[in-house]
From TrEMBL:
PANTHER family: PROTEIN HEMX (PTHR38043). The keyword Ligase does not apply. Residues 1-38, 378-414 are annotated as: Disordered. The chain crosses the membrane at residues 42-61. Residues 100-127 form a coiled coil. It comes from Aromatoleum toluvorans. Keywords: Coiled coil, Membrane, Transmembrane, Transmembrane helix. The lineage of its organism: Bacteria, Pseudomonadati, Pseudomonadota, Betaproteobacteria, Rhodocyclales. This is Uroporphyrin-3 C-methyltransferase. Residues 1-23, 378-389 have a biased composition (Low complexity).
Amino acid sequence: MNQEQPALTPSSTSEAAAAPNREAAGRSSVPATSRSGSRGGLAAAVSVIALVATGVLGWYVHDMRGSVATVREEVAQRLSAGEAAATEYRALGRQQQEAIAALQGKLGALEAQVAATEGQAAALETLYQQFSRTREDRVIAETENAVAMATQQLQLAGNAEAALIALQGAEARLAAQDAGQLLPLRRALARDIEQLKAAPQVDVPGIALRLEGLLERADALPLAFAGELAEKPATEAGDGAAPAAAAPSPMDFVKRVAHEVWHEILALVRIERLDQPEPVLLAPAQSTYLRENLKIRLLTARLALLARDGRTFAADLAQAQGWVERYFDKRNTRVQEVLSELAALAATPVKVAQPAPTESIAALRMLQARAGEAGKGAPAVAVPAAPAAAPAPAPAPAPGKGGATIRQPANGAR
């Protein structure tokens, strides 16, 4: 008995305790028994429902556990794959950051070279704008220089031939250009050339050659007193030669004595003309100076001819003509030729009014004005400014756990 007592369960104890209660209840009335039976059926139904619910709940929990396990496995696989991809991305990010740093260094060097190249290009553009012109502008500039040269030759030197050559060269360049807008200038040049050809010209080379011939003949001109001295001995020699040629006879002797006596009588009386001056007696040194001064006058006349100075040219020739008439023998043929040549040269005009190329100058001014208006209306050529030097590349940041962070360069690749 003592061994079986510990084996009693709480249910048996409760049943033993409930037995007196049941007996007491059995002694009670019949309606209490019927109520306890209905309560037991309700409890059984509740218990069945609870068991069914518990089974359903257990099955659901079991199913949920399987699903959770499957989700955990899938999440674990995805996490491992994401970690591998993140590791790979971090490696790629490091490589890309290193490549970007290298590219930024190269980009800085390239931008420095580009800045230097753009500076050189700007300088070349400036030089090109200063020294380079279009074909028409160059032809217009050459024509303007030719017209200016022709004007200087006409106004300063009076050289119509040089002016004509300059204008003809300009007209030939315009003809080779064959541009419609240059036709008015070409027409004006043609009219100025015709006016120059129609104007009277001075034969400067011919007059210079005539003066050169006078310079060469100045040393051979006989002086006036030398001609007088040469004439008297020739007359005396002619008078004494006739008696000597014949045979000596008493009559010849008498005639010679009579001739000498008559000559002596004539020497006692001297008849001179007061309206004509005596030839000037000059020493040999003074004769040399006279001839050199005559040459200097002829040379200055030639310089005045080249300078188109008519007043100086006429004055020098008049002075040379006066010296020749006063100091040289006018009865000599060479002196007479020199005097006639000097008179003809003095009457020759050396300065003739030449027409200026006014029409060509006006046409040039009109073309330049039109070119200036076209230049104002045309858009200006913009020279790009050199960019600033590229900044130093930023250091690559360390990638985080979730992946690599890539920082783009400030300027960006061009």
